Amino acid sequence: MFIGRDNELNALNKLYNSGKFEFVVIYGRRRVGKTALISEFSKDKDTIFFTGVETNAKQNLDNFSRCIMEYNTGIAAHSSFSSFQSALEYVFELAKTKRIVLAIDEYPYVARASKSLASTLQFLIDKNKDNSKLFLILCGSSMSYMEDHVLAYKAPLYGRRTAQFKIRPFDFFEACRCFTNLSGTDKALAYGIVGGTPQYLMMLDDNLSIEENIKNTHLNPISSIFEEPNNLLKQEVREPAIYNAVITAIATGSSRMSEISSKIDEDTSVCATYIKNLIALGIVKKESPYGEKSSRKTIYSIEDNMFRFWYRFVPENTSIISRGATDLAYRRISSELPSYMGGVFEDICRQYLWKLLLEGKCAVNFSDIGRWWGTNPKTRSQEEIDIIGADKDTALFGECKWTNEKADLGVLETLVERSSLFSYKKMHYYLFAKTGFTRGCTERADEMGNVTLVSYEDMLKA
Known about the structure:
5-stranded parallel beta sheet, Rossmann fold, Trna Endonuclease, Chain: A, domain 1, 3 domains, Arc Repressor Mutant, subunit A
């Protein structure tokens, strides 16, 4: 069953309906659903779908030829084109009179083996684009290759594409569509455990409890998720051992460059290079306090929830897991789940505010939102604000509470006090709570008039 990607499908179909030559680049991390998107888009269209493999040019050419033969039964089944140029010329010729989708999946595998392929495509696109109905899709999982050798200014294909799609993991609300039987709380936990990557979401069984799902995936040595982070890194980077160390350091609490460097015993310049690559892969994110650009306050965290959960809990329990002591490993994890979910809930709340903004329902028309941390000059203590965003003179301040107790008046008063560190003329406050709010908090919010109280249940209904 295909879920989500409505915006991408609509955009692809709009391009398809142009009737003219289109060249679309689709890229993103492995398992994120690129192939499923192309399959869904092309299911009712004349399509030649070719998937490259990590082999030599001859094998890929034979496979490509076979795909063309399967599409056009007029070619002898035993035939094979003599080159990629002749094969592509044949497809361009077919597409002169009718709309054909040519999808080349895992393009980096093909292009690495056939060094002249990009230049060949460049030549044929320039020659045929004005009289062709071909809808060409190049798709790849190697983020660096697609950005450097397809999209970059110096790449042969630069300037030929008519659209590009960077496919990202689902947000929380899209991820919820994958589950019909999980409770509201368990949907948040599921998102916190595997994030928004469709293939990982499908590995969870929504007829089981979250405890059972964790035991079946992250704590199960024969599960594909158990080896997934290491396998992904081996496919994307040359020195996975150091990348492993960097991710583990961040996942277990080292957030500043100096802390990460000290934890893994490498120079900060070395760490900076690895972290930059992890950011490009969508595994790590870099943050500064909202409204500030000071590198002195920059911190790093794990962006992808599957990596965040795995590196936070699996490495330290590997010996136990490998001995089959799944229940013991889970007991060690379960006590820390509430604190782990605090950061996940903050992320969900930020996504909810973006959702409101795009629907025209947010109290503040912010252009961006983030977190803030720093020193309170009055108390000289460190303060944090979970969410802050602004539109000129109007600011939004948010606090997120993932606890089994209702958020009380003190939570609102603390947020209001911290907002006084900023000089915006108008302020609106959002409180988010897993289990709702006390009467005192609700009454005070009503009196103030510039407070929105949002329970987790409200967010699920949005």
